[in-house]
Structure formats: structure tokens, C-alpha cells
Design a protein that fits this description.
This protein has about 160 residues and is mainly β. It has a single domain (about 15-155), classed as Calycin beta-barrel core domain (Lipocalin, Beta Barrel). The chain is built from no helices and ten strands. It has a ten-stranded antiparallel β-barrel. It is globular, with a radius of gyration of 17 Å.
């Protein structure tokens, strides 16, 4: 028989480390360009929210990337044993979940996976995140293009 407790003192709590991600929560527009382009060829929108309980961060995105429409869902969590923030991306580009990792420290954001790393910085007011993706050379250049983006909070 399973014992169910309603004692709130026993209820699991999200790690305080997750509070670093609070500044990402909201609705953001994305605009940017690949490094070889003179015009913006990346645009989109992401919505970032906590799932109920506050243990997982959900990012839902819609993006037009160099003429290709991409939809994605990403779930971020905290692994206290390794002190890292792994995530999994599910994208319309293929049927395989993609492992990534995140970190947010002060105004700096790092998002790595699939052979590239995004590094960016929040503006002082927290309403803009500016940065770029750079391939690390472990994947082919056609599937991993370097680009710069500006994310603007709209909600």
C-alpha cells in the first residue's frame, strides 16, 4: 500500500539555483542574422514559463530561420548532483530529442548543445538579450550556422 502524505512540510521545493532563470520568463521576439547576411534572416517568438511546481522551465518557440519555419519545445531543469542545468529540445526539424545545457549568471546567458554555444547578455533593464550562436566545429557547417540575435521582451 502506498502512503500519501498531505503534510506540506514534506513537500519538495525547487532548488534556489533555478531562481537565476527567472529573468528569462516571459514572451520574447527574436530578430537576427547569420554572419554571412547583410539583412535579418532570423525572426521569431519564444514564450518561457515555469511548469507548475517550479521545477522545470518550458520554452516554446516559433522561428523563421533562413526561410525555414521551426517550432520547438525545450524543457530545462536543475541537476544538483552535477550542479548543471540540462535541457532537452524537441524541434520540428527532426524526430530526435536534442540535449542542451544552460547557465545564467548575473546578466550572462550560456546555452550549449548540438555542436554550438550561445553566449549573450541581458541589458541593464532586463528587457533585451543580445548574443550569438557559434559552432564548435563538431558538426558540419551546413547544419550549424553562426548567427547573432537580439531577443526583446514583449510580455
Amino acid at each position: 500500500m502506498t502512503q500519501v502524505t498531505t503534510d506540506n512540510s514534506q513537500k519538495a521545493q525547487p532548488s534556489p539555483a533555478l531562481k537565476r532563470f527567472e529573468k528569462l520568463v516571459g514572451t520574447w521576439t527574436i530578430a537576427g542574422r547569420t554572419l554571412d547576411s547583410d539583412v535579418d534572416n532570423i525572426k521569431g517568438r519564444v514564450v518561457i514559463n515555469w511548469l507548475a511546481g517550479g521545477f522545470f522551465l518550458e520554452q516554446r518557440g516559433e522561428m523563421e530561420f533562413m526561410g525555414t519555419r521551426i517550432e520547438s519545445l525545450e524543457i530545462v531543469y536543475y541537476d544538483p548532483t552535477a550542479d548543471i542545468f540540462p535541457s532537452t529540445v524537441y524541434a520540428s526539424m527532426g524526430g530526435t530529442p536534442l540535449p542542451y545545457s544552460w547557465d545564467v549568471r548575473d546578466n550572462a546567458v550560456t546555452h550549449s548543445g548540438y555542436g554550438a554555444t550561445f553566449t549573450g547578455n541581458f541589458s541593464d533593464d532586463g528587457h533585451t538579450l543580445t548574443g550569438g550562436w557559434r559552432p564548435d566545429g563538431s558538426t558540419d557547417a551546413e547544419s550549424n550556422v553562426a548567427y547573432d540575435v537580439v531577443m526583446t521582451r514583449v510580455g
